[in-house]
Structures are given as C-alpha cells and as structure tokens.
Amino acid sequence: MQPFNLLVTICLIYVIGLFVIAYVAEKGAAEGRLTFLRSPVVYTLSLSVYCTAWTFYGAVGSAARNGLEFVAIYLGPTLVFMGWWWLLRKLVRIGRTQRITSIADLISSRYGKSNTLAVIVTLMAVIGTTPYIALQLQSLTLSFSAFTADSGQSIPSPAVTAFWVAVGLAVFTIFFGTRNLDANERHHGVVTAIAVEAVVKLVALLSVGIFVVWGVADGPSDIFSRMDPELLKGGQIFTPRWVTLMFLSSTAIICLPRMFQVVVVENSVEKHLATASWAFPLYLFGMSLFVLPIAIAGQSELPVGANPDLYVMTVPLAKEQTGLAALAFLGGFSSATSMVIVAAIALSTMMSNHIVLPLWLTLNRGRNPQSDDVRTLLLRARRLSIGGILALGYFYYQITGGTDALASIGLIAFLGVAQVMPALLGGIFWQGATRKAAIAGITTGFALWAYTLFLPSFGGAFILSQTTIDHGPLGIALLRPYGLLGLNIPDHLVHAVSWSIGMNTLVFITTSLFTTPRPIERRQSVQFVNVYGRFSPRSGRSHSAEPEELLVLAQRILGRNTAIKLFNETAAEQGKSRGLPDPTDSFMEKLERDFAGSVGAATAHAMLGQITGGPAVSVEDMMAVADETAGIMEYSARLKAQSEELTKTAQQLRKANLQLMELGEQKDTFLSQVSHELRTPMTSIRAFSEILRDSDQLEPDQLKHFSGVIHTESIRLTRLLDDILDLSFMENGQVKLNIRRTDLGSIIDRAITTTETHLQERKILLKRDLDHEAITVNTDPDRLAQVLINLISNAAKYCSAQKPEVSISCGRSASAVLIDVADNGSGIEAADIDLIFQKFSRLSGVFSAGSAGLGLPISREIMRNLKGTLTYVPTAKGALFRITLPL
Amino acid sequence: MAGKILLIEDEPHIVEALSFLLEREGWQVVAHSNGADAAQVAALRQPDVIILDVMLPNKSGIEILREIRANTQTAQKPVLMLTAKGQARDRAAAQEAGVSVFMTKPFSNQAIIDTVRSLAQ
Amino acid sequence: MSSETSSFLERDQQAQRKRKTREAAAFLPILGVILLLTPMISVFTQDTRTGGIPNAVFYVFGVWLLLIGLTFLIAPRLQQDDKD
After folding, report:
1. A536 backbone φψ class: left, alpha, beta (φ>0; ψ -120 to 50)
2. In a mutagenesis test of the A interface, which of B105, B110, B116 is the best target, namely the one with the most A β-carbons within 10 Å?
3. What was the ipTM of the complex prediction?
4. Could you say which of B17, B57, B110 has the minimum Cβ distance to residue A688?
5. What integer pLDDT is reported at residue B38 of this predicted model?
6. Are residues A483 and A334 in the same domain?
7. Which of A533, A561, A579 is the last residue before a domain boundary?
8. Cβ contacts from A onto C, under 8 A
9. CB contact under 8 A, A225 and C52
10. In this structure, what CATH number is given to the domain that contains residue A858?
C-alpha cells in the first residue's frame, strides 16, 4: 500500500476507534455506568490537551534551536498545579457553584454578569485561538507530507489535506460536543476520547525517545556526547525569556479557553484536582524527558536543513522504523485533533452563549417565547460556531501557511489570552475589583498585545506595514511596536509581555480603586471571593414572574423532561403536592444557575430578568448585599435583643404571677376569715333557735335568755356585715362624707357616751383633757366619732392592767389636730404593729375571741378618707393610737 | 349517767348552747375557753368525749389536738372538732392530726347529740 | 488528666497539623519559583557534566521531579482537610 494511503487508513481507523470510545463513554455516562470515566486518571489525562501538535513536534524543534528553553513551557503549569489548593481549587469551586461554562462566562459572571465583558473575552479567545487551530492544521499537513516525502507518490496538496482534516474534526466535534445541552456543560465522550489520545501521545513520544537513546545512540551519555556544545551554553538558562515563558505558560494553563474547559468546566469531582496536582506535572515531565535527546539525534543524524519541528517523525523514518514513525505520526495527530476539538467546543459555547443568544434575545424582544425553542437555537448556534471556528482556522492557515508568522503564533496566542489573567485573579481574590476596571484592563492589555506583538508578527502583511514596524507610525520612533517609548528589549515577546501585562494590571487596579461596583457586581464579588463561605446571599430580583412562564422558559432551555422534573422536585420541596412551585428567591436562584449551565450567567440573568420584568436589582437589595457579613451580624444582634426581651417579659410574667398568687392567697384568707366571723354568731343563733323550737318545757327565764342571745348575736351579725360593706366602700373611695365645722369636744363626748357601758362593765377609768378639746375641726363628725368609739372600745376590751385606764388627749401642731387614745395596758408587741391594721387580724397575745378584726382597718380607712391618719405610736407603757386631722 | 364531756370553746354563747343541750341528755359538761392549757385539762379531767373548736385564743385547735394525741393519757380519746371556717385545708389538717369527727358551724343540735353519743360508745 | 482536656489537645494537634499542611502547600509553589525562577539557577547550570550528561539537564529535571514528589506527598493530606 502506498504510504499516503496507509497513513490515511491508519488515521481513519484511529478516528473510528475514537468515535466508538467516545460513543460508548457518552452512553455509559448517561446511563450511570462506567464510573471509572469520572476517575482522577481520566481527568488528569484530559488535561493533556495542553500538549498540542505545536508542543508535540515543536518542543523538539525548540530544543534543537534554544536548548532547555522548551522546559519553561511545561514548568509554568507544573507550578500552577503545585499550588492547586490556592487557585485551581477556588476556580473549580466557583465553576461548580456558579455553573460557569467558559472563561468568558467566569469573567462576565464575576463582574455583574456583564455581557460586554463576555463578548470582549469571547472575541479575544477567538482571535487568540484561530491561528492556533491553523497551526494544528499546518502541523498535520506537514507531518503528512514528511511521511510521504520520499515515496514519490503524487499526494494531494497540503491545502486539500488540511481541508479534509478540518472537515473531519468539525464533524467529530459537532457530533460529540453538541449532542446535548448538559446543565454542567460536560462532555464525557469527548473527554474520554481525549484521555485515550493523551496516552497515545505519551507512548509515541516515549517510544521515539527510548529508540533514540538506546537504539540510535548507546545510552544517555552517548547521546549527550553528540550534542552541539552551543545548545546548552552554561549560565544561559535563566534569561528574561525563561521567566517570560514560565509566566506565559502558567497563565495559559488557566486562561486558554480549551484549558479552562478541561480544568474547570469538565471537572466533575473537586478532589480530582488533588491527584492531578502531581499526576499532570508528571505527565508533562514524561512528555519532555526525551525531547532533548530527540533534538540531538535529529541534529546529528539528519542532513543539515532538515526541519527540526519534524524530528520526532523524521528520525525514526531515517532509521527506517516505519512503524515507530507511524506511531509518532499518530501522536502528533492525537495532539492536533484533541486540541482542535476541545478548543472548538469551548469557543462555540462562548460564541453561542455570549454572542448569538443575546443577539437573538434582543431581536426577539417581546415575541411570544413559546414559538421558538432556545435549545434548538443554542444547539444550532453551537454547531454553526464549531464549523465557523474550523473554517476560520482553515482560512487562516491558507493565508499564512508555511510562514514564520504561523510558526511563532503559539506564544503570541498565549500572551493574547493571558490578558484575562489580571481580571481573573482580581475577580476571585479581590472584592473591590470592578467591571469597568476589568473592561479597561483587558482592552488595554489586548490593544498593547495586538500592537506590540500580534500585528507585527505578520511581518508587514497585515494592517501594520514593515515601515511602521521598523520606524514607528508616521515615523515616530517612540511608537515603534518593538520598542515602545524607547524600551529596548531585543526579545519581542518579553517586550510585549512587559507592556501588555504591566499596563493591563496597572489600569485594572487603578480603575478598580476609582470606580464603584454596581450592586449586582458586589453580590457576585462576594460569591466569588468567599466561595468557600456557607451563607447564601439574597437574590436581587423581585419575583413577579408567573410559574407558568418560568416553566415555558425552562423547557426551552433545559429541555422538557429536565424542566418538568426540576419543577416537580421544587414544588415537592415547597410542600406542594401538585401544581407549579412558587417563584421564591431560592428557586429563582437555582433556575438562574441551571440556565447559566446552558446559556451562560449573563444570558441566564438577562432571560430571567426579561420574564420577571422588574429591575435587576432594587435599592433595598443593594443595601442588603452591600455587606453580607454586616447583615448576618445585624441578624444575630437582633436575635440576641429579642431573646433578652423575651427573658425580660418572662421575668415580668413571673412577677405578675407571683403577685396574683399572693393576691389569691390574701383573698382566700380574707374569705376564710369572713366565713369564720359570720358563722360564729350564726352558730349561736341556730343552736338556740333549734332549742326554742324543739323544747316544749322551757322556763320563762330560760326562754327570755335564749331569745336575748339570739337577738344579740343577730345584731352582731348585722354589724359585721355593715362593717364589711363599709370597709369595701371606703376602700373603693365610694364613701359619702358629710364634712362640716364641728367642735372636737362634742365629738369626743358622743364617742364616750356610746362606749360608756363597755367602760363601766370593766371598771375603766377614763381621763380627758377638756381644755385642749376646745378646737373646731372641719370634718365629718359621725365618721370621726366612729373611729374614736372603735379606739376606746378596743382599749377597754384589751387593756390588761389591774386598774385599767383610758386617756384621751388633744393637741394641735401648725397644720394638724392630734388626738391620742392611750391605755395603761401591756401595749402591742413590735412584731404585731403592722398586723393590727389588717382585716380580721388577731394578735397572738391579748386578742379575745368573738371580735371581728375589722375595727382598726375601718378606722384607718375613715381617716384616710378624711385626709388624716391613724397610727400606732409605740410608748414605754400601754398602747397609744394617734389620730391626725388637717386643720 | 352518760359520761363526761370536755368542751374547749371560747365563744360564750356556743358554750352555753352546747352545755344546755348535752346536760339535758345526761352528760356532764366541763367547759374550758383557753387554748394554752387545754391539752393538760383534757389529761387531767379524762373526759369520755372532747369537743374542740378550731379557732381559740393563744393556740389553734389543730395544735391542741396534736398535743392530745401525743399524750398517752388522752391519745385514744374521741375528739369532735368544730370549725367556723369550713375550708378543705383545715379538714385535711385535722384528719392528719387524728380527729375523730369534723363538723362545720353552724350545726344542727340533733347532729351534735347523735355524734357525741356514737363517739362515747 | 480529664478526657475533655485530652480531646482538646487532640483537636489542637489536628488543627496544628492542618495548618502545617496548608503552609506547606503554600510554600511549594514558592519553593518552585525559588529553584527555577531566580538567577541562582545559573549556579547549578554551568557548562559541566556528570556521567556525560550536562548538569543543567540534571538540575532542571531533578528539581522538577522533586517538586512533583513533594506535591504527591502533600496533596492527599490537603484533600483530607477539605473534607472536614
């Protein structure tokens, strides 16, 4: 078979094999089988899309020209993966929580779901990636021709080869890259195919390397002895270029659209990063271990003028190892195809989400959303984008193919996408970074990159003329693209990196400091920077949306079954057995995140915003999200205040309860006392009346006596009831007073007359002070007399002296009249003084039975009503009650 | 002769009524109005039945009952307690202290006579 | 010693270990930068050879392998931390 045909057959078989692998993996993943596909090994291998044909073939070429310089391209990613805990883990976590679909989506989402930024980054990515795809096509065609160069067979022109390769890649990518719109934007089939290609790449390069060291040469020392001494000139490794390459490669591992796709978007399990952190650098180590020996072998074994970029294949061919050469060819083929496939998927996602869909939304504003299916639109947009991207790459190759412009495009493209880096790092580590700053920084850096590196790389063929490149625009030397402002760095790449990245960062930081983020940016910045935090921020939308509308939209974006499942689950979570869920904050947030997984954050936000109709963020929401921490603190402070208030209320309730219980106790005691006081006379009355009723032969004396007892006790009972009513009235202030000017003496006279019988019964000596009684008082004489009667009869009743005496003395102070009623008894013990004014109190000592304890309480109430007082005055001998009356 | 009754009560008219009733039935009634030494009087007089008022000057009826029960000479004596308060709390306290019968004032004369008679047997 | 105290000490030790692992993780990239991105790299990459192989090659690939090894040792422990 002719070599070319053989090669084509090998390629076809290989591609069909990949198809099968991808198909089986896709099906397996969909059915939940083949869980090993989600292993860290597959993840690590998929990262190998970093190693494109440019590195597969080009690393050897670079080693042949610049010695160890190629290692820097691998060391940068090594350093980034070693620090995975700090940067990659955060990116992956953000990617998952925010449902990030691409690097453009990440930047846009972080800076307030800005579509402007998304478009800028997408365009940059397209500009940076298209030449790179062209480069892959060139590598492939070069390797084809190199393989078949000696056969003398007439082969199709490189352009035709490139065309068919591009078509084949487009078909493969469309088939596996846009089979479905996964909410997570993961492509199990593609990833698995790429993992297989990664193994092929590594095996191919290692095989060629081993063959070179032990097949061509006689071990490592032999191969290095053949080395051109100029290749590794001592002390020349650490150069500005070495540092620049390390920087660029470490940036590229994150910012290249295809790398972001495999590192962040395709990451299904965060912990895979832990394995990849050492396994991916180890893969890169394996990929570069034999690069230098192969370069040396190529230089020493092949004729001068052979293309170093093809040594990997031409060395085995020169040694007539066709099988090994074919393997090397397959390695290169794998490198090129995997890069193109992943890059096309990443770019098509960006283009459809950030350019096509927003455009469609704008054009269809206000149209009935049911008539079209966003899913179909998205899938079509993606397929067209993939085709378009490959077409762009092909045309780019056609125009610049074979020139130096294409060969050097790898690093130039690296620097182009690296312009995203300041905005990216600032976005995930610095809450103060703003959208305006990101736009300003990225455009500044991109413009400088274009001016100082990209455009001049065409060597005067595109926009910038050779004259401009050499002497500056309009002859202004200060503006020379390769020596901006006179900066004289011989290495154009280092010059461009210094200017573009330096100015980009500077503009980004200063603009951030001088601009204020919009509320939605602040919300997003909190979510990105504090992605490990546990609080869920408040949603910034007023939910006027109808659930039906939301369902229609969700069906369009997520597909019918997924949408209905999601809505049913949410309804169940909200406790609804049937019907649609309410558009709550959390539901809307979840919807937006799920939509973002399909159409990107900015678009999802815009679509839901269009449905809900309200302003994206209200002022209150802005205030609320301004400082989430403050909100939480405020909340906890409020909780604390509330609990304090509750404690206080509980205390008050306890106190009130205690008072009520005390009152209840007092009431019980009072009722019990009243009962006793009423029942005692009642008992006598009943007993004697029954005797009268039941006894026929009673003596007339007995009859008279018993009737007398009944009479006396009846009077006692009546008086008691009067007293209770009296006291009750007086306590309520309902007593009617008959105030008039009266002579005090006459009132005392009345009191003594009433109590005379008592006094005489107990042979009590009454002493009066008639001189001082000549005072006119303004009071109710009946009530005052009542108090006096009570005091005199008490004294008469309880005075325990052998020769009892009761004395009444009067006097006046500046404002009051004083009346003292004293006896010569034993007085009242100090402990009892408070008790005597309580209702029905009985003192431990002298109280005799039968007395209602209401006299003193009533007297005190009377005095209170008369605006005077009644107090007990402790004396050396006997009891002394003092009445004061206002003049 | 029906026996001796110690009547511990401070209300003169009630003492008079009860004495009249019980003496007519043939009892010998000893009245005592001071709470302080009532228990000693009970031990000294050895009555067949003790009638005890709950509210007495100087000492509550419950306390006197406890003393009566504590003294071996009177521990077995039937005690009829009279109260004018009629609260469940007093009844429970009296029962705990070992009262024989608890009656609330005012009472029916016949009930007193019947109770005393049954207590004496 | 009460069990509470000892469990407190254990927790403290765990926290210490965690911090150390994290510090080591932070230090690794810095170590890489020091070994590969400072002019001192030239000290080890003079025009000399060991066993026929240039020392520069030994140095670059040796440091690379060393860094991979260190990452390999630390990564599982960091990942365990993440679970807590």
Report:
1. beta
2. B105
3. 0.93
4. B17
5. 86
6. no
7. A533
8. 108
9. yes
10. 3.30.565.10
Whether residue A66 is contained in a domain is answered as: yes
Domain boundaries, chain B: 3-112
Out of C29, C45, C82, whose CB is closest to A82? C29
Give the count of alpha carbons within 13 A of A319, CB side only: 21
Domain co-membership, A212 together with A333? yes
In what helix (H) or strand (E) does residue A809 lie, and over which residues does it extend?
Answer: strand A805-812
Return per-residue pLDDT of chain B as tens, 121 residues. 578 999 999 888 999 999 999 998 889 999 988 888 888 888 888 999 999 988 877 788 888 999 999 988 888 899 999 888 766 777 888 888 888 998 888 889 999 999 999 988 8
Convert A484-515 to b/e letters by CB count within 10 Å (16 or more is b): beeeebeebbbbbbbbbbebbbebbbebbeeb
B60 touches B93 (CB < 8 A): no
| Whether residues A170 and A123 fall in one domain | yes
Helix, strand, or coil here: A491?
coil
Q: What angle (nearest 5°) sits at the alpha carbon of residue A544, between those of residues A540 and A549? A: 110
What is the reported pLDDT for A456?
85
Q: Determine, for residues C54 and A227 on separate chains, whether the beta-carbon distance falls below 8 Å.
A: yes
pLDDT of A497: 92
- The partner residue sitting opposite A79, judged by closest CB among C33, C39, C82, is C33
Q: Which chains touch A (3 or more CB pairs under 8 A)?
A: B, C
Predicted confidence (pLDDT) per residue in C53-78, tens digit: 888 888 889 999 999 999 998 888 77
Give the pLDDT of residue A622: 35
Q: Who contacts B11 (Cβ-Cβ below 8 Å, separation ≥6)?
A: A680, A683, A684, A849, A850, B53
Asked whether residue A551 is domain-assigned, the answer is: yes
> Binning pLDDT at 50, 70 and 90, where does residue C21 land?
confident
Between A and B, how many residue pairs show a Cβ–Cβ distance under 8 A? 73
In chain A, the number of structural domains is 5
Give C 6-35 residues with CB within 8 A of chain A: 22, 25-26, 28-29, 32-33
Bridge partners (DSSP) of residue B7 are B31, B51
**Cβ of A237 and C38 within 8 Å?**
no
Q: Cβ of C52 and A281 within 8 Å? A: no
Same domain, A680 and A765: no
Give the residue from A533, A563, A579 where a domain finishes. A533
Name the residue of chain A whose CA is nearest to B112's CA: A687
One domain for residues A492 and A555: no
Same domain? For A270 and A359 the reply is yes
Q: What burial letters (b/e) apply to A747-778, b meaning 16+ CB within 10 Å?
A: bbbbbbeebeebbeeeebebebeeebbebebe
Say what the pLDDT of residue A235 is.
52
Residue A412, domain member (yes or no): no
- The three-state DSSP-derived secondary structure of A360-420 is HHHHCCCCCHHHCCHHHHHHHHHHHHHHHHHHHHHHHHHHHCCCHHHHCHHHHHHHHHHCC
In a domain, A282, yes or no: yes
Residues of chain A falling short of pLDDT 70 = 1-3, 33-37, 149-155, 180-185, 233-236, 365-373, 401-407, 533-546, 556, 577-578, 598-603, 606-607, 609-635, 831, 839-853
What domain range is A724 assigned to?
630-731
Q: Identify the CATH number of the domain in which residue A223 sits.
A: 1.20.1730.10
Evaluate if residue C82 carries a pLDDT over 70: no
Q: Which residue of A has its CA nearest to C63?
A: A75
User: Is A690 in contact with B109 (Cβ distance < 8 A)?
Assistant: yes
77-106 in chain B: CB under 8 A from chain A: 84-87, 104-106
Q: Are residues A256 and A222 in the same domain?
A: yes
Nearest by CB to A684, from B10, B17, B21: name it.
Answer: B17
Q: Are residues A186 and A300 in the same domain?
A: yes
Q: For the domain bounded by B3-112, which CATH number is listed?
A: 3.40.50.2300
From A532, which residue of chain C is nearest by alpha-carbon distance? C82
